[in-house]
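**Backbone shape codes:**
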Amino acid sequence: MASRAFSQGSQSQGGAYGLAGGDPGGRGSQTLSFLDFDTQEDYHYSELSQTPSWADPATQLPSGHQHVGPPTPGRSYDAANDVAASLGELRFDENFDEERSEEQGKDIPEWACAYCGIHSAACVVKCLTTGKWFCNSRLAGLAGSCAVVHLVKSKCKEVQLHKDSPLGDTILECYASGTRNIFALGFVPVKSENTVVLLSREIQPSHPAIRDLDLDLHLWQPIIEERAFVPWLVREPAEQEVMRARQITVQQINKLEELWKLDPNASVDDLDKPGVDEEPQPVALKYEDAYEYQHVFGPLIKMEAEYDKAVKVSQSKDNITIRWDVGLNKKFVAYFYFSKDDNELRLMPGDELRLRHNCPNNGPAWEGVGQVIRLDATEEVALEMKSANVPEDVKVGYVVEYVWKSTSFDRMQTAMKTFAVDETSVSGYLYHKLLGHDLTTQNLKVPMPSGGFSVKGLPELNHSQVMAVKSVLQQPLSLIQGPPGTGKTVTTAAIVYHLSTLCHSQVLVAAPSNVAVDQLAEKISATGLKVVRVCAKSREALGTPVEHLTLHYQVAHLRIPGKQEFQKLQQLKEEKGELDAADEKKYKALRRLYEREILQNADVVCCTCVGAGDPRLSHFRFKQVLIDEATQATEPECLIPMVMGAKQVVLVGDHCQLGPVVMHKAVSKAGLSQSLFERLMLLGIKPIRLQVQYRMHPCLSEFPSDTFYEGSLQNGVSEGSRIYPGVHFPWPVPEKPIMFYVQMGSEEISASGTSYLNRTEAICVEKIVTTFLTGGVKPAQIGVITPYEGQRAHVMSVMLRMGTQNPQLYREMEVASVDSFQGREKDFIILSCVRSNERQGIGFLSDTKRLNVALTRARYGLVVLGNPKVLSRDPLWNKLLNHVKDRGCLVEGPLKNLKPSLVQLSKPSKLFDRGAFGLGGAFSTRFRPSDRATKDEKRDTPTANGSGSGSQGSARHSSRSPSRGYTPTATSNPGAGNSLANGNLAGFPLPAVQSPYTIPEMSTVQESLHKTTGSKDGSSSSRHKTSTPPPASGGPISSGPLSNGMVTGRGNYTAQNPASQILPATGSAMFTDLNTQATFDFLDDLNSQDQMLSQGIADGFMDRSGNDSLYHTQPLEDGSSLGGLGK
């Protein structure tokens, strides 16, 4: 029998799915019929109680390509949901799988779900990439059906039905284009027939097949809803099938998917083999020495590098069409499209790509490497080729591959090694501080500027900026927190100016991103200092706003006697593209000479954190180092510029905004996603916060200030100065340019399978953008941001397809992800929330840091689009929605006739509390026993004299006994008052961070943390002198059985509650006395007590009295305790 993955010639055609009703063969019987394009024969598939009659073979679709059953007389299908409802009436034989099982014997058939074992033919699909079968069952704990979960995790997109299913062994594909990406497929009813057709989401209405079938694409609905296949296409298993299925957890599925990458034949049984559960050692809060530091971070960097390489190398695209051109430098440039939505690879200018082409007629294959020099809004890539030998006459059939480089990871490893072996890499004081050792705070003797702290060429500093500059100049290690719009760049430039002029030494300024470095270099240059911007050699051909400050530009335009020879060689190289060996050697030697000369004469050197490891800087030493955006860099990344002789370090950032990007989930969970800025805060170094914001209209800054910054932000701009003149936009409250625009359209999985989009919101975004453009706002003033890459691509597509303004205006406007917009601003921001579902939740939209960034990008106006019923389930979003509702800015209806929304907000799953969301509170972090105890015990077993086996000859301290260490985890905890469950005093979530102390030693550590460490003068100039807390027992936590209850929050001291004496005597909280096990109220409101505890009880790790059998507590530096409250 011919395949039902129908094709004719080279045009792949997915069948149109027909449903014929009114069959005389039996009452209520229905038949699905198909036509094979090759044989023109009809095939019918049925799982019905009676055999239906055949459809009339004379009936054909308008296109002439497809035959389906005849339409039902007198019955009209005007909408897709009517068709879907009829399809839902199909009756499947519930005993099918049992009968098949009896025929096959007791062995599970090959088409059984690789996760749970369900094997009913109507319920399973085959992944064409892996060859494995998965069912449409939504197991307990899974975010979707087994089939969809596998496709998302494995990044596969093509499936085939079982041969015994009602639709046969059909490969699901688009009827018009042949696209097989199931995440882009949906169904549309044929108006004149009782038929549905599978079509791609991005199919154009002008496509011939669409015109022939007379389809209304507005009725398109995805075949995957709520992360499962629609049941008329792939049946949901019966309840008894699910009960018989293998019980598998989400964690096991994740491990199984990872195992399949190494061994495709692995099964669930292989999960029990040794080594499968191996996880990296988590980062610690403190380290005994730099060797231990390297021992922890080294493997994490290696794992992240391997994962990054695997992801990027696998992201190749074939069948690419190339447009060749020649640049001004006479190098060939290849232009092609590389859609961001189809892969998780994010191309950046400077990246290297490889082009390959297998020439026809057995000609020689060609490949060449080039550098990305430009990316535009339409996702066209400009690739400048390194070689002049390109097949410019060949336009099609190319393969594009990513060229992965290990440079950034190698430099991190080198920096950690330098930190360990080179005693001159940082001062002794910084060495101990970075490792978390307790030292007496040092004050530097630096003369204060006589003319004040404001700097010529920069705006006048406000009071908080002056305090920040003054404090930094006197401290060897400083943290500055710069909330959105508070003049962080100006403050940083002023600090660099004073460090350079007062200390009379070069200053190294670094940041993790090139954009941040360019902005800083420009601002510092305005002060009159000599600034050199060091770019990676791979980026020298790219344009930059500070081109005149770059090292390569200054070398090329250096005007000194005797430079004529270098200029001639450089001109020759540009004309010919290359030099002979002798001239190339001479050219490089002269270039190195001039580069060093320019760097030596600079007051300030600016580069990225990774760029600080450039060989051109290897012979330089910088006593003053400033790192901007330090909260967006991983800790080893920050270490690269610091190990170049630093004696004074300034870290600038905002831990309440997005942190470092770590791709490997296990590595991120182990703590690599925690920045050095955050760890130093945990160690008690308090950041200096800038407090006056100059960006947002006061009504826009109100909510972020109150929610994320304890209401401390002051407005440096008035309402009048933030009303944009001449722009007529229908703000619900004209003097408050903010609104939440209610949209109830459903979310869909994007074509990548790993992101989301919302078609309703995308259409609405286009209308809002068009309204702004019509009102006189320029495209460059508007920014559309969304948390999801799938929505970003879809919004751009919708604007170009449906926008009524000049398409070029939409192309000039920036549509970006929230993450990529951090540190940037626009006059008007449109935020599309995307998430709208019944059971999936809102994903990382609930991330407080991401919401903070999204809400603080606009200067003059902010429009938020979303489903308030879904979003209000989250406590933080619930607070935001009530905030805008109370101000009359929660609206719905047509844009020209907005009305206050009557939608009822959902009750949040828990009350919003700053402590529960990592936004404040004193050291309220929950600790749990480290999962790495066994390995750590082997690595660091104490010896008789109290020291461990050591590393690189360095003795271990008895206080670091990880075998009984404890780990804070980012788990929600509805603490009272200003307590904090997954954060610290300054408010940020924590990864798994291993505590360096055991429970009995805690009380002694509390005392020792206040003692002086180092040399007699307290300067700690030597990195070999550290204090070791002597072993002890007792303290607020008993050394007996660790059956702790909740000892978190606040409580009143009583004789029966000795633990509460260490907490503020305000409010009340539930406590368990560790000796008597007596319990105390957790909250003043007894009704909310049950609400807070119910989840923990349901999870099985807490009983009604609050006893916690899994999570223990330990006191911290100030004597307060960390509780084990549930989610």
About this structure: The chain has 28 helices and 42 strands. Residues 480 and 569 are 47 Å apart (CA to CA).
